[in-house]
Structures are given as C-alpha cells and as structure tokens.
Design goal:
This protein is mostly helical and 87 residues long. It has four helices and no strands. The chain has helices spanning 2-11, 13-60, 66-72, 77-85.
Length: 87
C-alpha cells in the first residue's frame, strides 16, 4: 500500500502536482521564517547602532569622555570610533 502511494506521488499528474504543492508550501514557510529572522536581526542591529550613535553624540557634545563611551559600548576607543564612522 505504501509502495502504491509512493508510485502515485511520483508518476501520476495528480501525485506530481501534490508533491509540487507541498514543496512550494515548504519553500514559502522557509521564506516567511527567513523574513522573520531578518526583521529580528535588523531590529537588533538598529538598536545597537542607535545606542552607539547616542554614545557618540554624548561624546561629541563633551557630556561623556571617549573612554566612557567606548567602555559603555564594550569596545576599545579605536574600535568605537571606527564603528560609528560608517553609521
């Protein structure tokens, strides 16, 4: 019985269509999950960039020192300045 079902799915038009539909569903689920993960990562990166920019603005306005800003960012001073350069 299982062999008959396997044959039907592989070799009949209906079976091939069913298999194609299942594959398309799996692909779409993967895309949705990928978009969800991408949005999550994007939000996380955005928050980090916002935090770094805030620290940098505080440093530029002489509210905090460079060593404090870098320390809060858990970076060296040089790494901190390089990270905000591209933002």
């Amino acid at each position: 019985e299982l062999a008959d079902e396997s044959w039907r799915l592989k070799w009949t038009e209906e079976g091939i269509k069913n298999m194609n539909d299942m594959v398309e569903e799996y692909i779409e689920e993967g895309r949705k999950e990928g978009r969800k993960e991408g949005r999550k990562e994007g939000r996380k990166e955005g928050r980090k960039e916002g935090y770094l920019l805030t620290l940098y603005d505080l440093y530029k306005d002489d509210i905090i020192s460079l060593d404090v800003a870098a320390s809060r960012a858990e970076m060296t001073e040089q790494a901190f300045l390089e990270s905000v350069k591209g933002l």
